[in-house]
Design brief:
The complex is a heterodimer of chains A (382) and B (259). Chain A contains ten helices and ten strands. Chain A is α+β, with helices and mostly antiparallel strands and 382 residues long. Chain A has three domains: 113 residues, Acyl-CoA dehydrogenase/oxidase, N-terminal domain (Butyryl-Coa Dehydrogenase, subunit A, domain 1); 109 residues, Butyryl-CoA Dehydrogenase, subunit A, domain 2 (Beta Barrel), CATH 2.40.110; 144 residues, Butyryl-CoA Dehydrogenase, subunit A, domain 3, CATH 1.20.140.10. The model of chain A has no long low-confidence stretch (mean pLDDT 95). Chain B has 259 residues and is of the alpha/beta class. Chain B has a single domain, classed as Rossmann fold, CATH 3.40.50. Helices cover 27% and strands 25% of the residues of chain B. In chain B, the strands form two sheets. A nine-stranded mixed β-sheet of chain B has the order 9-8-7-10-6-1-4-5-11, with helices on both faces. Chain B has a two-stranded antiparallel sheet with strand order 2-3. In chain B, strand 7 and strand 8 form a beta hairpin. In chain B, helix 2 packs across helix 5 and helix 3 packs across helix 4. Chain B starts with a strand and ends with a helix. The mean pLDDT of chain B is 92. Classes of the chains: A alpha+beta (382), B alpha/beta (259). At the A-B interface, helix 1 of A face helix 2 and helix 5 of B.
Chain lengths: 382, 259
């Protein structure tokens, strides 16, 4: 039986985060964007609400919710500010989730309470200067020296890697070779650690209030017990983390797409041209109708992918579809929203200009649109 | 300490609110019901008092069955249990009658402190705390922006136009709070989940020993005689500066007695 209604509890969560996003996040989004500053006070309030612990059981300091609850929170935050939403997404689904999914009981007990409470932020280092989508091209190496891993290499575009509450960076590294193929493993690096360095901020097109850095490992030594998951499973494990992450990114994209609709509905009623509201022109009204359709379809797509995932069914294809569709919807909606706002749409003081700058990365991060098409085609046996 | 916080569900101020044409009461079906904003501050203050002094926070509301949403919100923030006074006989009750009905419940459940928001966004009477205190024969500490309890003494700062008054009374007492008092917390998901399992006692007029003849629209002391939709705001006056803009603006302000 189909049922897309949210339970009372999930609806209460959604409303709470919506209210928080409207009252706390939105009023300051432009300011943090302009100053390219990480919003520590907002992140602290998100932590107090338990958002970083949403999908984890209470025994690890979590809220006892699930991955879908996290997605709902991300969508609502993204309606106000993508930077804040990606901070939560990366912190939970990339920073903490691998520890929960693949960590030993000891590793979970050591790290999850801190990460779930939002007191500490986690990051995930996969992409390198020489390879993004091609994760198999990993050049970072880790060598066992006695009972320590010695790590050397560089990782690019790592979200949450340089904040002053970042305490964990999990990194993929080549740990050997078998049958002529690289053996890739994941290793947890506590921060700060000698030899771990964070490069200065990137100059990004959008996501200005999100913390993104290149990070380098120079003879970084960590205990051999910091191996996360089985040796040689690092790549496979992270691919599964990325499958889930696509649903969360789809939720974020849905939030941005919806924010564009909301702004345009308001503006098209207020803004007059030739003696009437611009929304009374079909050229404008139809654009907004199409935008609403895309936001709606994006939401259905990520709900469906999350549902399959939570049922324990294969969800790779649905996650790729949700991520691909919603990120393109976000870019389309942001472009149209900017157009509807005319000259004001090009001014940073209008939220749609920020949404426009924040949208493009959605077609790139956590698997480009091309990678999503590749995944879908592969699932079809092509 | 037994802390009771009174909350009210009101039509969302962000939506178009209406009165019912038949009996001129608020149309609670037309708009989404939300917790009255200032009530969130009252709940927050109740929770802080509990955190400081121990005890239990009980949420009390009078309203139709859909007011359960508002109760759940207060429980999700951290209140321990709730009492919901719900009965068709209460429909259309005015301030006097509401204070009588709530006082009956409060006498029944007992309290050390009753905390309320200073007014609701629907009726905007702002009189309930005073009426309740009178009916309960308890001191009233109104418009508090700070509350302290020390043994059986309660002290507040009452916000005034010129600053604040320090007011002191002994418990049990009735306190109304203003928005400056605190920053209400947002419920966590754990709180939302826990709220589902917290006890909510539903009372009818008979359960609360309320005389049904003394509540409801028919016996209300006040009556809404007529109402009209507020006229749309008139367009502003545009003063074109032709060298005398400053003078014109000053004249305008003087004509409105601003200067």
């Amino acid at each position: 039986m189909l049922d897309y209604r949210l339970s009372d509890e999930l609806e209460a969560l959604r409303k709470t985060v919506e209210q928080f996003a409207r009252e706390v996040v939105a009023p300051r989004a432009a300011e943090y964007d302009e100053r390219k500053e990480f919003p520590y006070d907002i992140v602290r309030q998100m932590a107090e609400m338990g958002l970083f612990g949403l999908p984890f059981p209470e025994e690890y300091g979590g809220m006892g919710g699930d991955y879908f609850a996290l997605c709902l929170a991300i969508e609502e935050l993204a309606r106000a500010d993508s930077s804040v939403a990606i901070t939560l997404e990366a912190g939970v689904s990339l920073g903490a989730m691998p520890v929960y999914r693949f960590g030993t009981e000891e590793q979970r007990r050591e790290w999850l309470p801190r990460l779930a409470s939002g007191e500490a932020l986690g990051a995930f280092g996969l992409t390198e200067p020489g390879g993004g989508s091609d994760a198999g091209a990993t050049a970072t190496r880790a060598v066992l020296d006695g009972d320590e891993w010695v790590i050397n290499g560089t990782k690019s575009f790592i979200t949450n890697s340089g904040t002053n509450i970042t305490r964990l960076v999990t990194v993929t590294a080549v740990t050997g070779e078998s049958d002529g193929r690289k053996e890739i493993s994941s290793i947890m690096v506590p921060v700060p650690t000698e030899g771990f360095a964070v490069a200065k901020d990137y100059s990004k097109v959008g996501w200005h209030a999100s913390d993104t850095h290149e990070i380098t490992f120079t003879d970084v030594r960590v205990p051999s017990a910091n191996l996360l998951g089985r040796r040689g499973r690092g790549y496979a494990n992270f691919l599964s983390i990325l499958d889930e992450g696509r649903i969360a990114i789809a939720a974020l994209a849905t939030g941005l797409a919806q924010a564009c609709v909301d702004e345009c509905v308001k503006y098209a009623k207020e803004r007059h041209a030739f003696g009437r509201p611009i929304g009374s022109n079909q050229a404008i009204a139809f654009k907004i109708a199409d935008m609403e359709m895309k936001a709606h379809m994006s939401r259905l797509a990520y709900y469906r992918a999350a549902e399959k995932m939570l049922r324990g069914e294969p969800f790779k294809k649905e996650a790729a579809i949700a991520k691909l569709y919603s990120s393109e919807a976000a870019v389309d909606n942001a472009r149209e929203a900017t157009q509807i706002h005319g000259g004001y749409g090009f001014m940073n003081e209008f939220p749609v200009a920020r949404h426009w700058r924040d949208s493009k990365i959605l077609e790139i991060g956590e698997g480009t649109s091309e990678v999503q098409r590749m995944l879908i085609a592969r699932e079809l046996g092509l | 300490m037994n802390i009771v916080v009174c909350v009210k569900q009101v039509p969302d101020t962000a939506t178009e609110r209406k009165l019912r044409p038949d009996d001129k009461t608020i149309d609670r079906e037309a708009a989404e019901g939300v917790i009255n904003e200032i009530c969130e501050y009252a709940v927050e203050e109740a929770l802080r008092l509990k955190e400081a002094h121990g005890g239990e926070v009980t949420v009390l509301t009078m309203g139709p069955s859909k007011a359960t949403d508002t109760i759940r919100k207060a429980l999700a923030m951290g209140a321990d249990k709730a009492v919901h006074l719900v009965d068709d006989a209460l429909h259309g009750s005015d301030g006097l009658q509401t204070s009588y009905a709530l006082a009956q419940v409060l006498k029944k459940i007992g309290f050390d402190v009753v905390i309320l928001g200073s007014e609701s966004t629907d009726a905007r009477m702002g009189t309930l705390a005073a009426m309740l205190a009178e009916r309960l024969d308890a001191p009233q500490l109104s418009l508090a922006n700070k509350v302290e309890i020390d043994g059986s003494t309660i002290r507040i700062q009452r916000l005034t136009d010129y600053g604040f008054d320090r007011v002191e009374a002994s418990l049990p007492a009735v306190v109304s709070v203003v928005e400056k008092i605190n920053e209400p917390r947002y419920p966590s998901f754990k709180g939302i989940m826990a709220a589902k399992k917290k006890p909510v006692e539903t009372l009818s007029v008979a359960d609360a020993e309320i005389d049904a003849a003394k509540v409801g629209l028919a016996s209300a002391a006040t009556e809404v005689v007529d109402f009209a939709v507020a006229p749309p705001r008139a367009a502003g006056t545009i003063v074109k500066d032709e060298g005398d803009g400053g003078v014109k603006v000053a004249e305008f302000l003087a004509s409105k007695k601003f200067v």
